[in-house]
Each structure stands twice: as C-alpha cells, then as structure tokens.
Specification:
The chain has 11 helices and 13 strands. It is of the alpha+beta class. It has 2 domains: 200 residues, 2-Layer Sandwich (Ribosomal Protein S5, domain 2), CATH 3.30.230.10; 178 residues, GHMP kinase, C-terminal domain (Alpha-Beta Plaits, 2-Layer Sandwich). The strands form 3 sheets. It has a 6-stranded mixed β-sheet, sandwiched between helices. Strands 10-11-9-12 form a 4-stranded antiparallel β-sheet. It has a 3-stranded antiparallel β-sheet with strand order 2-7-8, with helices on one face. The radius of gyration is 21 Å and the shape is globular. The two termini are 14 Å apart.
Length: 386
C-alpha cells in the first residue's frame, strides 16, 4: 500500500477510487512572451501533482493537501463556490468547479480529494497550473462533461486570470495539458497551433536549479511587466498592422524606437520580440540535433531576461553564471517568471555530480543558503493513472 493511499484512508476512513497525475513544466526558451503572442518551447516534467479521490453522495468537495498538513481538511459546498481567502490553496481547484458551473455544467455528487505535489512550492515550475489541470481533468472525467482538452486548458487559464487574479498567459496550462514524453512543444500562443519537437539531448540531461528564494507570482512584478508590454503594443499597433507585440520583427521595432522612449518601454518590447525570434531558431536547431547551439540560445535568453526585462535577480544570475563556469554545461537560463524560482541547465551526464557540487557550493558561498537540484525527465500531460 502506497503512503498516499494510506494517507487517504487515514483522512477519509475509506479507500480511494481513482488516481490522477498532472505534471509540472519547464520552459526551455521563450520566456515572458506568451502574453504577447509569442512562440514558446516548454515541456512537461515528471515532477507534478498526484490526486487521489473517492465519490460522495452529497454536494461537498472535501480537500486535503499532504503538502500542507497544517491547513487540514477544507470542506466546500458545490452550491457555494465563491472565492474565499480563508480557503487557502483550495481556491485553485474550487475555481475550476466555479467556472465549470458558470458554463452550465452540473455536479450530481461531491468528492473527497487528496492532493500531493512533488513540485517545490513557489519554484516557478507551475505547481498552480498543475493543480488546476489535474482538477479540470478530474471534473471532466468524473462528471462525464465531454469537454475537449484544449477547452480544459483554456478553462484553467481563466481560473488563474479571473478567479485567482494572476495575469498568466496560456503556456503553463497548455504544456501541462498537452505534454508528451521526450518532446518539447513549440506553441504559438496567439493561434494555439503547436508542434511537438523531439528533445534528443544525446549525452546530456536537463538539471533544474532551485534558488529556494520564494516568490509569490501574484505579488511580484509580473503584472507590471505585462502592462508595460501592453502599453508598447498600444503604441506600435498605430504604426503597424499587428495583433500582438511579437508579430513584429526586430527591424520593425528598432525603426520605431523613438516612440518607446518613456521608461522601460523599449527594453521590454525588445526582449519580447528578440525572444520570439530566438525561440523560432531554437526549434530549428533542436530538429537538427545541434544541442551546442541550443545551449548558446539559452544563454542569450537569460541575458535578455536579465538586462532588458529585469526579472532574474542575484540568486538566478548567480546560478546561471556558476553553471556556465563548469565544463560540460552547454547552456543555462532562468525558467518561468523569474523573481526567484528556478533556472535550468543542459549538462553532460558524466559531469552532473561535479556540476551540482560546484554550483551548489558557489551559490551557498555567495547567497548564504542552499540551492536544490533535480535532474529532470520529460513526461506526459495530465491523465488518470489508476
């Protein structure tokens, strides 16, 4: 009997009936452009969220997180799905049911739900989107709602944007919903067209480096960056026939640089447009099997996020610099929104132990507390597993 199964029986005094798994995600390149109509290149990873459940005969949703045992059991009625800050983390899954109900779906029974995540909290690996997609797939499955996967992805984005109040793009939810083993997803965040890109790293692996600097995305400068890009777009759409900022080329952007002289408008727009072009190139070099060039593009992405978008900070920059100083590291960059969270590196398999030891020591010396390291495997999207 698994420890989670035992925990479920301890909490609910009965056996679970179904189990689901929803991955986290890393973004290989294409950062802070999913809300500007840009291309992104994420993949799902095997760190994620497990959910065990049993059905109830009443209208109660009963939640428990094994990661937040001090919060305890939270009980919610399906007839009262308003946001409530006292409901803590359960506002995320509750929001899924709330928006489904707004769409006209009916729930004829309640659920006992136990969540357990292996994604480090506030690490930038999309623990919230993982929970949201897990819950959406569960609701679709248990209540036989027959909603297609893309609409579930859109629903979970709406929960994060309109119920929780964080202005994320669609990349996190999409990559978690559509993840595939040993493949990245080249996603056009404007049209939602996508292509699976084989991720053959040869004798290398992806190492996730967690700064352990906690950041609350809703409280970070994320919304400020998005608003600045929206402001730049509003100016440039008067000059060009564009629907999104990332519809521009760098030449077009530079030709109108004088219009973006206020504050950080030009720098923010420059990052978005150049990152979009890097992502296109990155997909091509991965298809060609040129891992070394892909690593160089990762480095360029980090420098743009550091200098133009200003979302990295001391901790992430320390990890990235230390990573590149180690023989066998092909490239390194922040992944996710930044402001703390994680960076990733592509490292030769024979050098991984040495890499973790050296980068970890350098980080501890400079920052004063330890980073954590995980060797990532690329896995499938959200699904029922039992």
């Amino acid at each position: 009997m698994s420890s989670l199964q035992m925990r479920f029986e301890d909490i609910y005094n009965l056996e679970y009936e179904r189990e689901y798994f929803s991955p986290g995600r890393i973004n290989l390149i294409g950062e802070h452009i999913d809300y500007s109509g840009g291309l992104v290149l994420p993949c799902a990873i095997t760190l994620g969220t497990s959910v065990l459940l049993s059905e109830r005969e009443d209208s109660k949703l009963v939640f428990y997180s094994d990661n937040m045992q001090d919060v305890g059991v939270i009980e919610i009625d399906l007839n009262d799905l308003e946001y409530n800050k006292d409901h803590n983390w359960t506002n995320y899954p509750k929001g899924v049911f709330a928006l489904l109900k707004e769409q006209g779906h009916k729930f004829d029974k309640g659920l006992n739900l136990l969540y357990y995540g292996t994604i480090p909290y506030a690490s930038g690996l999309s623990s919230s989107a993982s929970i949201l997609m897990a819950t959406a797939v569960i609701a679709n499955d248990v209540y036989e709602l027959n909603i297609d996967r893309l609409d579930l992805v859109k629903l979970t984005k709406d929960v994060e944007n309109n119920y929780i109040g964080v202005n994320t793009g669609i990349m996190d939810q999409f990559s978690i919903g559509f993840g595939k083993e040993e493949a990245a997803i080249l996603l056009n965040t404007d049209t939602l067209d996508y292509e699976y890109i084989p991720l053959d790293l040869k004798d290398n692996s992806i190492v996730i480096m967690n700064t352990n600097k906690k950041r609350g995305l809703a409280d970070s400068a994320y919304n400020d960056r998005r608003q600045t890009c929206d402001q730049a777009f509003d100016i440039l759409k008067e000059e060009y026939d564009i629907e999104y900022l990332c519809d521009l080329s760098l030449d077009q952007l530079e030709a109108k640089k004088d219009l973006l002289s206020e504050g950080k408008l030009y720098d923010r727009a420059y990052h978005a447009v150049s990152e979009n072009e890097r992502t296109k190139l990155a997909a091509e070099v991965l298809k060609a099997g040129n891992i070394e060039e892909f690593g160089m593009l990762m480095n360029e992405s980090h420098y743009s996020l550091r200098d133009k978008y200003e979302v990295t900070g001391l901790e992430l920059d320390t990890l990235q610099t230390a990573a590149l100083s180690i023989d066998g590291c092909l490239g390194a960059r922040v992944t996710g929104a930044g402001f703390g969270g994680c960076a990733i590196a592509i490292v030769n398999n024979a050098k991984i132990d040495e890499f973790i030891e050296a980068v970890g020591t350098d980080y501890l010396d400079k920052i004063g507390y330890a980073a954590d390291f995980y060797v990532a495997s690329v896995g499938p999207g959200t699904a029922r597993v039992k």
